[in-house]
Amino acid sequence: MKKMTLFIMLLMSLTLQAQTAREFTIPLTDKGEATMVAFLPSHPSGRAIVGIPGGGYSVLSNTHEGTQWSHWLNEQGIAYFVVNYRLPNGDRNRPISDVEKTFRIVRDSASVWGIHPRDIGIMGFSAGGHLASVISTLSDYEVRPDFTILFYPVISMDERVSHVYSCRNFLGEDQKNPEMVRRYSTQNSVKRHLTPPAIIIMANDDRLVPPVTNGVAYYSAMRNAGNECAMYIYPTGDHGFGVGPWFKYHDQMMADLGNWLKNRPAPQPDAIRVACIGNSITDGHGIDMATQHGYPAQLQRLLGNDYWVKNFGVSARTMLNKGDFPYMNERAWQDALAFKPDVVVIKLGTNDSKPQNWQYAAEFKKDLQQMITTLRPDLLNTAKKKGKKAKKGAQTAAKPEIYVCTPIPAFKSTWNINDSVIVNGIIPIQQEVAREYGLKVIDLHTLFANDADKVQGDGIHPNDKGVQRIAEIVAEELKKK
Q: H or E stretch including 312?
């Protein structure tokens, strides 16, 4: 019997070793106060997850909310990195910077570790879930995860509806500052198209972190933004179950999480990156779940897996930098640059036709040139040769092919949008600039001239048929490459 027991233990040990090819620790700070523990799988799928243990920002619960996840994840071919982050102790930037540095290391080392640099998720528990949501909503594109897993997360920093000590430990003196409480209550920081897809896992009887004002609030913000989000609330389990086998719904929870991960699409590493830049027509105003049904999403389906299409549209935005809501002031613009696209589709100009914006008509050409030469710094010489002065800005490393779309017709003058200004003012400038830089123009205005049935009742925004039509037109042009 003793020999049989030893044999079983040896077999289990060999099985564990077979799933994890390498385990090592990397210091994240000079003195080693923060570390990253890596578990690389024997048969990598290309996916990775950065794990953020909980502990109320006062300790780290890094066993069942940390290292004990390595076997199951490695078994799925997922590389796993546990962040033993520094506690805030009055400075919330300490844990934030430790997690962001982990993402930089993992993405920089992706090719060596068998990881797709754009298939890296974050998984956080309780206060670690709050930290994971901060990284998912507030960090720059380069260190933002591609998907988010939140276990019974602290989301609100309002201690009246959240975990008191997580709030106090994270914000410190700023707990008295309503602006900081709102900013770091991350349901307020969810951005349409930009915040990564998420799954939220909780127990209904959680008495430590109220689900409704935390995890459910994050889900509501995601759904209201039209972002992809799943939520699983089990009847019992209270708080802090992690990967612990004592959780009554452990097997069901693992199956649910595994199924969600299995059905999470990842772009092909060599896919052609397409950035869709624009206003509400790109954003998907009036299209429910626009992240999955707007024109960029339809474009993705038409182009297939050889392309990776991302929506960087923001409603009400203008090309004009003196407009009421300039696009180039938006985070989406910075994200689009960081995306390093191979192809850019620009669809701006509709809101510029409003009287309060078109009073700056003389600057429309210059601002369009600025956008183009920021995307393509190599074209700055073209502007200089033609005697044009183009402003510098953040630059992409690549030389994307740029398509300039004319606005679709304004069938009504809703919001004082003026089709005459679009036809006689904006489109001629777009065509002139495109000629100067050798860019392609997609004349949506002409192609939509007889499609009043493909716009919503406001006469401005395309309906479901309209976004499909735009996607078909753009796809046809891109396939001509």
A: strand 307-313
**pLDDT at position 435:** 97
Q: Which residues of 133-148 are buried (b: 16+ CB within 10 A; e: fewer)?
A: bbbbbbbeeebbbbbb
Secondary structure (DSSP) of 440-473 = EEE-HHHHTTT-GGGB-TTSSSB-HHHHHHHHHH
Q: Is the pLDDT of residue 203 over 60?
A: yes
Rg of the chain taking only CA atoms, in angstroms: 25
Residue corresponding to tokens 């209550």: 185
Amino acid 390: pLDDT: 41
Mean pLDDT of 159-176: 96
The tokens for 128 are 């670690």
Which residue, among 174, 163, 160, has the nearest Cα to 88 in the 3D structure?
174
238: left (phi over 0), alpha (psi -120 to 50) or beta: left
Residue type, 439: L
Cα 374 to Cα 394: distance, rounded to the nearest angstrom: 6
Task: Kindly give the pairing relationship between strand 198-203 and strand 147-151.
Answer: parallel
- Please say if the pLDDT value at position 426 is more than 50: yes
Q: Are strands 120-125 and 147-151 parallel, antiparallel or unpaired?
A: parallel
DSSP, res 318: B
Per the prediction, the chain carries an average pLDDT of: 93
Structure tokens at 87: 């506690």
Q: Say what angle helices 464-478 and 295-303 make with each other, to 10 degrees.
A: 40
Residue 314 CB partners (closer than 8 Å, separation 6+): 192, 278, 279, 280, 283, 325, 327, 330, 332
235-239 contacts: CB < 8 A, separation 24 or more? Answer: 235/203, 235/204, 235/205, 236/203, 236/204, 236/205, 237/203, 237/205, 237/206, 238/203, 238/205, 238/206, 238/207, 238/208, 239/126, 239/152, 239/203, 239/206, 239/207, 239/208, 239/209
User: Based on the number of CB atoms within 10 Å of its own CB, is 412 exposed (0-12), middle (13-18) or buried (19 or more)?
Assistant: middle
Give percent of the chain with pLDDT exceeding 90.
Answer: 91
Half-sphere exposure of 156 toward its Cβ, with a 13 Å CA cutoff? 19
- CB of 149 within 8 A of CB of 257? yes
Q: Identify the pLDDT of residue 383.
A: 53
Instruction: Report pTM.
Output: 0.92
